[in-house]
Protein backbone atom coordinates (compact mmCIF):
# COMPACT_ATOMS: atom_id res chain seq x y z
CA UNK A 1 0.00 0.00 0.00
CA UNK A 2 2.97 2.30 0.56
CA UNK A 3 3.68 2.67 -3.17
CA UNK A 4 0.04 3.59 -3.82
CA UNK A 5 0.19 6.34 -1.17
CA UNK A 6 3.37 7.67 -2.81
CA UNK A 7 1.65 7.65 -6.22
CA UNK A 8 -1.39 9.47 -4.80
CA UNK A 9 0.85 12.08 -3.17
CA UNK A 10 2.53 12.55 -6.55
CA UNK A 11 -0.85 13.23 -8.16
CA UNK A 12 -2.44 15.41 -5.50
CA UNK A 13 0.37 16.72 -3.31
CA UNK A 14 1.87 15.55 -0.02
CA UNK A 15 -0.31 18.04 1.88
CA UNK A 16 -3.26 15.72 1.22
CA UNK A 17 -1.38 12.65 2.49
CA UNK A 18 -3.60 12.10 5.54
CA UNK A 19 -6.91 12.27 3.65
CA UNK A 20 -5.58 10.11 0.84
CA UNK A 21 -4.25 7.50 3.27
CA UNK A 22 -7.61 7.29 5.07
CA UNK A 23 -9.40 6.88 1.73
CA UNK A 24 -6.97 4.19 0.58
CA UNK A 25 -7.33 2.28 3.87
CA UNK A 26 -11.10 2.25 3.31
CA UNK A 27 -10.60 0.71 -0.12
CA UNK A 28 -8.31 -2.02 1.22
CA UNK A 29 -10.60 -2.75 4.17
CA UNK A 30 -13.59 -3.53 1.93
CA UNK A 31 -14.22 -7.28 1.71
CA UNK A 32 -16.02 -8.77 -1.28
CA UNK A 33 -17.09 -12.37 -1.79
CA UNK A 34 -15.97 -14.84 -4.43
CA UNK A 35 -16.92 -18.51 -4.73
CA UNK A 36 -17.63 -18.86 -1.01
CA UNK A 37 -14.53 -16.98 0.10
CA UNK A 38 -13.48 -13.38 0.49
CA UNK A 39 -11.52 -11.13 -1.85
CA UNK A 40 -10.15 -7.62 -1.42
CA UNK A 41 -7.62 -5.25 -2.91
CA UNK A 42 -5.00 -7.15 -0.88
CA UNK A 43 -5.41 -9.97 -3.43
CA UNK A 44 -4.32 -7.62 -6.25
CA UNK A 45 -0.84 -6.51 -7.20
CA UNK A 46 -0.26 -2.95 -6.02
CA UNK A 47 0.99 -2.00 -9.47
CA UNK A 48 -2.48 -2.76 -10.86
CA UNK A 49 -4.18 -0.57 -8.26
CA UNK A 50 -1.85 2.34 -8.98
CA UNK A 51 -2.44 2.01 -12.71
CA UNK A 52 -6.23 1.92 -12.28
CA UNK A 53 -6.12 5.20 -10.35
CA UNK A 54 -3.72 6.77 -12.86
CA UNK A 55 -5.96 5.70 -15.74
CA UNK A 56 -9.03 7.24 -14.10
CA UNK A 57 -7.17 10.47 -13.42
CA UNK A 58 -5.79 10.60 -16.97
CA UNK A 59 -9.28 10.25 -18.45
CA UNK A 60 -11.29 12.30 -15.97
CA UNK A 61 -8.81 14.75 -14.35
CA UNK A 62 -10.25 14.03 -10.90
CA UNK A 63 -9.75 16.53 -8.12
CA UNK A 64 -8.64 15.18 -4.74
CA UNK A 65 -12.11 15.94 -3.33
CA UNK A 66 -13.79 14.00 -6.13
CA UNK A 67 -11.49 11.03 -5.56
CA UNK A 68 -11.98 10.89 -1.80
CA UNK A 69 -15.73 11.55 -1.73
CA UNK A 70 -16.98 9.80 -4.86
CA UNK A 71 -14.55 7.08 -6.01
CA UNK A 72 -14.34 3.45 -4.91
CA UNK A 73 -11.74 0.87 -5.99
CA UNK A 74 -13.05 -2.70 -5.78
CA UNK A 75 -11.80 -6.14 -6.87
CA UNK A 76 -13.04 -8.05 -9.92
CA UNK A 77 -11.94 -11.11 -11.85
CA UNK A 78 -10.42 -10.46 -15.25
CA UNK A 79 -12.21 -11.77 -18.34
CA UNK A 80 -9.55 -14.39 -18.97
CA UNK A 81 -9.49 -15.45 -15.28
CA UNK A 82 -5.76 -14.78 -15.15
CA UNK A 83 -5.83 -12.39 -12.21
CA UNK A 84 -7.94 -10.31 -9.89
CA UNK A 85 -7.95 -6.69 -10.97
CA UNK A 86 -9.07 -3.34 -9.55
CA UNK A 87 -12.19 -1.67 -10.91
CA UNK A 88 -13.08 1.98 -10.39
CA UNK A 89 -16.67 2.78 -9.42
CA UNK A 90 -18.26 6.19 -9.00
CA UNK A 91 -20.81 6.85 -6.27
CA UNK A 92 -24.19 8.35 -7.14
CA UNK A 93 -23.21 11.52 -5.30
CA UNK A 94 -20.63 12.28 -8.01
CA UNK A 95 -23.36 12.64 -10.66
CA UNK A 96 -25.51 14.62 -8.25
CA UNK A 97 -22.69 17.04 -7.43
CA UNK A 98 -22.15 17.82 -11.13
CA UNK A 99 -25.84 18.61 -11.60
CA UNK A 100 -25.90 20.79 -8.49
CA UNK A 101 -22.76 22.75 -9.38
CA UNK A 102 -24.47 25.57 -11.26
CA UNK A 103 -27.27 25.80 -8.64
CA UNK A 104 -29.96 25.76 -11.36
CA UNK A 105 -30.72 22.07 -11.03
CA UNK A 106 -31.86 20.46 -7.77
CA UNK A 107 -32.04 16.72 -7.13
CA UNK A 108 -34.82 16.62 -4.56
CA UNK A 109 -34.73 12.91 -3.73
CA UNK A 110 -32.98 9.68 -4.67
CA UNK A 111 -34.80 6.91 -2.83
CA UNK A 112 -35.89 3.28 -2.81
CA UNK A 113 -39.55 2.36 -2.54
CA UNK A 114 -39.91 -0.74 -0.38
CA UNK A 115 -42.71 -3.20 0.29
CA UNK A 116 -45.24 -1.49 2.57
CA UNK A 117 -44.47 2.06 1.39
CA UNK A 118 -47.11 4.29 -0.21
CA UNK A 119 -46.16 5.73 -3.58
CA UNK A 120 -47.65 7.21 -6.74
CA UNK A 121 -46.05 8.00 -10.07
CA UNK A 122 -47.60 10.37 -12.61
CA UNK A 123 -44.97 10.42 -15.38
CA UNK A 124 -41.44 11.62 -16.14
CA UNK A 125 -42.48 15.28 -15.90
CA UNK A 126 -43.75 14.96 -12.32
CA UNK A 127 -42.20 13.95 -9.03
CA UNK A 128 -42.79 10.48 -7.63
CA UNK A 129 -44.88 10.72 -4.45
CA UNK A 130 -43.42 8.46 -1.76
CA UNK A 131 -44.33 7.94 1.87
CA UNK A 132 -42.08 5.48 3.65
CA UNK A 133 -43.59 2.98 6.08
CA UNK A 134 -42.15 2.71 9.56
CA UNK A 135 -39.47 0.12 10.30
CA UNK A 136 -39.21 -1.32 6.80
CA UNK A 137 -35.63 -0.35 5.95
CA UNK A 138 -34.80 -3.95 5.07
CA UNK A 139 -38.01 -4.73 3.16
CA UNK A 140 -37.99 -5.76 -0.51
CA UNK A 141 -37.20 -2.95 -2.96
CA UNK A 142 -40.10 -2.39 -5.39
CA UNK A 143 -38.47 0.43 -7.36
CA UNK A 144 -35.97 3.26 -7.08
CA UNK A 145 -36.54 6.81 -8.23
CA UNK A 146 -34.93 10.20 -8.68
CA UNK A 147 -36.91 13.43 -8.30
CA UNK A 148 -35.48 16.68 -9.62
CA UNK A 149 -36.46 20.30 -10.24
CA UNK A 150 -35.14 22.94 -12.62
CA UNK A 151 -35.00 26.17 -10.64
CA UNK A 152 -36.61 29.29 -12.07
CA UNK A 153 -39.17 27.44 -14.18
CA UNK A 154 -39.77 24.95 -11.33
CA UNK A 155 -40.07 22.21 -13.94
CA UNK A 156 -40.23 18.82 -12.25
CA UNK A 157 -38.77 15.59 -13.59
CA UNK A 158 -38.31 12.03 -12.38
CA UNK A 159 -36.50 8.84 -13.38
CA UNK A 160 -37.57 5.36 -12.24
CA UNK A 161 -36.12 1.84 -12.31
CA UNK A 162 -38.60 -0.93 -11.57
CA UNK A 163 -38.19 -4.00 -9.39
CA UNK A 164 -36.96 -6.28 -12.20
CA UNK A 165 -34.41 -3.70 -13.36
CA UNK A 166 -33.13 -3.23 -9.80
CA UNK A 167 -32.68 -6.99 -9.34
CA UNK A 168 -31.05 -7.37 -12.77
CA UNK A 169 -28.47 -4.67 -12.07
CA UNK A 170 -26.89 -6.66 -9.23
CA UNK A 171 -27.16 -10.01 -11.00
CA UNK A 172 -25.75 -8.76 -14.30
CA UNK A 173 -22.95 -6.75 -12.73
CA UNK A 174 -21.71 -9.60 -10.56
CA UNK A 175 -21.88 -11.98 -13.52
CA UNK A 176 -20.55 -9.79 -16.33
CA UNK A 177 -18.86 -6.71 -14.87
CA UNK A 178 -17.09 -8.21 -11.85
CA UNK A 179 -16.99 -11.74 -13.35
CA UNK A 180 -18.26 -13.62 -10.32
CA UNK A 181 -17.00 -11.28 -7.58
CA UNK A 182 -19.57 -9.58 -5.33
CA UNK A 183 -17.59 -6.56 -4.12
CA UNK A 184 -20.29 -4.61 -2.23
CA UNK A 185 -22.41 -4.57 0.91
CA UNK A 186 -26.21 -4.25 0.61
CA UNK A 187 -25.97 -0.49 1.18
CA UNK A 188 -23.27 -0.11 -1.45
CA UNK A 189 -25.34 -2.10 -3.94
CA UNK A 190 -28.22 0.30 -3.37
CA UNK A 191 -25.92 3.18 -4.27
CA UNK A 192 -24.90 1.28 -7.45
CA UNK A 193 -28.60 1.24 -8.36
CA UNK A 194 -28.89 4.95 -7.54
CA UNK A 195 -25.96 5.62 -9.89
CA UNK A 196 -27.92 3.73 -12.56
CA UNK A 197 -30.72 6.29 -12.18
CA UNK A 198 -28.29 9.05 -13.11
CA UNK A 199 -26.92 7.13 -16.09
CA UNK A 200 -30.47 6.30 -17.23
CA UNK A 201 -31.41 9.96 -16.97
CA UNK A 202 -28.69 10.78 -19.52
CA UNK A 203 -30.80 8.94 -22.13
CA UNK A 204 -34.11 10.58 -21.14
CA UNK A 205 -35.62 13.63 -22.89
CA UNK A 206 -35.16 15.78 -19.78
CA UNK A 207 -31.39 15.57 -20.15
CA UNK A 208 -31.58 17.72 -23.28
CA UNK A 209 -32.80 20.52 -21.00
CA UNK A 210 -30.27 19.71 -18.29
CA UNK A 211 -27.43 19.74 -20.82
CA UNK A 212 -28.36 23.26 -21.88
CA UNK A 213 -28.01 24.35 -18.24
CA UNK A 214 -24.80 22.51 -17.37
CA UNK A 215 -21.42 24.00 -18.22
CA UNK A 216 -19.56 22.26 -21.03
CA UNK A 217 -16.94 20.89 -18.62
CA UNK A 218 -19.52 19.42 -16.23
CA UNK A 219 -21.54 17.90 -19.07
CA UNK A 220 -18.41 16.29 -20.54
CA UNK A 221 -17.42 14.87 -17.16
CA UNK A 222 -20.94 13.50 -16.62
CA UNK A 223 -20.78 11.82 -20.02
CA UNK A 224 -17.34 10.35 -19.27
CA UNK A 225 -18.51 9.00 -15.91
CA UNK A 226 -21.39 7.25 -17.65
CA UNK A 227 -19.11 5.66 -20.24
CA UNK A 228 -16.17 4.85 -17.95
CA UNK A 229 -15.34 1.14 -17.81
CA UNK A 230 -17.46 0.07 -20.78
CA UNK A 231 -14.31 -1.39 -22.34
CA UNK A 232 -14.48 -4.19 -19.77
CA UNK A 233 -17.31 -5.67 -21.83
CA UNK A 234 -15.31 -5.76 -25.08
CA UNK A 235 -15.36 -9.45 -26.15
CA UNK A 236 -12.10 -8.94 -28.07
CA UNK A 237 -10.21 -7.62 -25.07
CA UNK A 238 -7.05 -9.59 -24.34
CA UNK A 239 -7.34 -8.99 -20.61
CA UNK A 240 -3.87 -7.48 -20.23
CA UNK A 241 -3.08 -4.85 -17.64
CA UNK A 242 -2.48 -1.41 -19.11
CA UNK A 243 0.49 0.36 -17.56
CA UNK A 244 0.45 4.15 -17.17
CA UNK A 245 3.22 6.60 -16.40
CA UNK A 246 2.93 9.07 -13.53
CA UNK A 247 1.71 11.56 -16.15
CA UNK A 248 -1.16 9.31 -17.21
CA UNK A 249 0.33 8.19 -20.54
CA UNK A 250 -0.27 4.58 -21.64
CA UNK A 251 3.21 3.07 -21.91
CA UNK A 252 2.59 -0.67 -22.18
CA UNK A 253 0.49 -3.74 -21.37
CA UNK A 254 1.43 -6.47 -18.89
CA UNK A 255 0.50 -10.15 -19.36
CA UNK A 256 -0.18 -12.79 -16.71
CA UNK A 257 0.77 -16.47 -16.67
CA UNK A 258 -1.25 -17.74 -13.69
CA UNK A 259 -4.96 -18.37 -13.12
CA UNK A 260 -6.46 -16.24 -10.33
CA UNK A 261 -9.15 -18.78 -9.46
CA UNK A 262 -6.59 -21.57 -9.01
CA UNK A 263 -4.31 -19.30 -6.98
CA UNK A 264 -7.19 -18.31 -4.66
CA UNK A 265 -8.20 -21.96 -4.22
CA UNK A 266 -4.61 -22.94 -3.40
CA UNK A 267 -4.41 -20.25 -0.73
CA UNK A 268 -7.44 -21.74 1.04
CA UNK A 269 -6.29 -25.40 1.00
CA UNK A 270 -4.04 -27.21 3.50
CA UNK A 271 -0.57 -28.44 2.45
CA UNK A 272 -0.69 -32.02 1.13
CA UNK A 273 0.44 -34.95 3.30
CA UNK A 274 3.30 -36.95 1.75
CA UNK A 275 2.93 -40.76 1.81
CA UNK A 276 5.19 -43.60 0.64
CA UNK A 277 3.34 -45.79 -1.90
CA UNK A 278 4.62 -49.36 -2.21
CA UNK A 279 1.82 -50.82 -4.33
CA UNK A 280 -0.17 -49.74 -7.38
CA UNK A 281 -1.17 -46.13 -7.52
CA UNK A 282 -4.77 -46.96 -8.37
CA UNK A 283 -7.12 -45.27 -10.78
CA UNK A 284 -6.55 -41.52 -11.18
CA UNK A 285 -9.31 -39.28 -9.85
CA UNK A 286 -11.33 -37.35 -12.38
CA UNK A 287 -10.92 -33.60 -12.03
CA UNK A 288 -13.84 -31.18 -12.10
CA UNK A 289 -14.13 -28.63 -14.87
CA UNK A 290 -14.06 -24.96 -14.00
CA UNK A 291 -17.34 -23.10 -13.72
CA UNK A 292 -18.12 -21.25 -16.91
CA UNK A 293 -18.51 -17.48 -16.58
CA UNK A 294 -20.77 -15.87 -19.15
CA UNK A 295 -18.94 -13.24 -21.21
CA UNK A 296 -21.92 -11.47 -22.75
CA UNK A 297 -21.69 -7.72 -22.87
CA UNK A 298 -23.73 -5.52 -20.55
CA UNK A 299 -23.90 -2.10 -22.15
CA UNK A 300 -25.21 -0.06 -19.22
CA UNK A 301 -26.55 -0.48 -15.72
CA UNK A 302 -30.18 0.43 -16.38
CA UNK A 303 -30.68 -0.74 -19.95
CA UNK A 304 -32.31 -4.11 -19.42
Question: How does this structure look, described?
Answer:
Helix 1 (2-12) packs across helix 2 (17-29) and helix 5 (92-100) packs across helix 7 (186-201). Residues 244-250, 253-259 and 274-304 have low confidence and may be disordered. It contains 10 helices and 11 strands. It has helices at residues 2-12, 17-29, 46-60, 64-70, 92-100, 163-177, 186-201, 206-213, 216-227, 260-267; strands spanning 32-34, 37-39, 71-77, 84-90, 105-114, 118-120, 129-131, 141-150, 155-162, 241-244, 250-254. The strands form 5 sheets. A 3-stranded antiparallel beta sheet has the order 5-8-9. The chain has a two-stranded antiparallel sheet with strand order 1-2. It has a two-stranded antiparallel sheet with strand order 3-4. It has one domain. The protein has 304 residues and is an alpha+beta fold. Strand 10 and strand 11 form a beta hairpin. Residues 265-292 are annotated as: Disordered.
Poorly predicted regions: 244-250, 253-259, 274-304
Order of helices and strands: HHEEHHEEHEEEEEHHHHEEH
Q: For the largest beta sheet, what order do the strands appear in spatially?
A: 5-8-9
Structural class: alpha+beta
Largest sheet: 3 strands, antiparallel
How many structural units, i.e. domains? 1
* Mean pLDDT over all positions: 82
- The total of helices stands at 10
Helix percentage: 25-40%
Region (Disordered): 265-292
